[in-house]
Description:
15 strands, 2 domains, six-stranded antiparallel beta barrel, elongated, alpha+beta, 22% strand, Thrombin, subunit H
Amino acid sequence: MAKTSEEPPKAAPxxxxxxxxxxxxxxxxxxxxxxxxxxxxxxxxxxxxxxxAGFVATLIGLMACxxxxxDNGYARLLGALFVTFAVPLAIGDRLLxxxxxxxxxxxxxxxxxxxxxxxxxxxxxxxxxxxxxLLTREGDRFQKSGYEVVARVVYFLAGVHADFPSPxxxxxxxxxxxxxxxxxxxxxxxxxxxVxxxxxxVPTxxxxxxxxxxxxxxxxxxxxxxxxxxLAPAVVTIFVRGPNGEGGGTGFVIDKIGTIVxxxxxxxxxxxxxxxxxxxxxxxxxxxxxxxxxxxxxxxxIDPQKPSDGTAAELTVVTLGDSDKIQVGERAVSIGNPLGxxxxxxxxxxxxxxxxxxxPWIQMSVPVxxxxxxxxxxxxxxxxxxxxxxQLGGMFGRAQNLNLAVPVNEMKKLIKTEYxxxxxxxxxxxxxx
Length: 433
């Protein structure tokens, strides 16, 4: 009988005496939870402030741009509003995710805030060199229309300082009429009390109102002929030579030690300077005391006792008035050197007190021609109320009777007891012309 080999059964594995540790569960990935209520509140406040500030800056900037094409207020406002909203709405619509309402929340307003803030910042700061003129002209439009608060915002964005004229004091005409009517009526009571009171009340009230807002001065009114005779000797002719050739203008003496006022653009870049008085005395040694390009004003000084030609004599000086008290419609005269015709007298009216290019001006119908710049504008008391500066030009030529003078109160800000930055005019220090 054949033997069969049988394999012995395998022994069962021995159970481990040490129990196995259970496998570790995978560490869950931490996800950030929803923003805290405090953060959301802060974010909403920042977004609202950004939208408001950016909207104002963008609207004003666009109105200033459209203002280069038209002065019509409705056209500027409606055009600016359309662009202000249309552009961010169009961009925001492109950014909206399709079919995800949750992620779509706030995208439009966030787009508006970003675009408005960026445009306003770039327009008012980065590109200020090119946009300042547009903004200042827009500020002038608002100021002229009576929106002083808006005008101040526009001038702030333009980076220019603007002085707004203080309003004229109000007069209670009815009170003045009542106060003045009583004595007049009693004085005429025997004739006709009722008629006398009524007749005298109206003119007396008018006279009182006029007196209270008129410029207060102790100087009598003068004729243009009297002003010229007395004050023409205080007006000087200025000749300059610089890198752009020769030119000139007008100036006037404000003190006995030889301080002369003129425009900045008259002496700008002058290397050689010559000053000639009404009597023909010539000075070629002069100092530049103060120079303000923004106000277009300059102060220069000569030594009255050291002329380069002629005999030294005591200088005639002007009286400085108060340009805050001038009234539209009052008469004014100017003495200057139009086209080199020395000591020419012209007259006209004060047409307006206005802001232009972010600065205060006297607009007048007193004629201005090349050579008049820097000359004095007198009221009829013989006080200087302004410095002749410019003639406004139109698109196709010069406008008629639209002339500007710097208010004399702006010039007073330059007058000091010491001028640490004073300097001599190039070769004029050597007396050469």
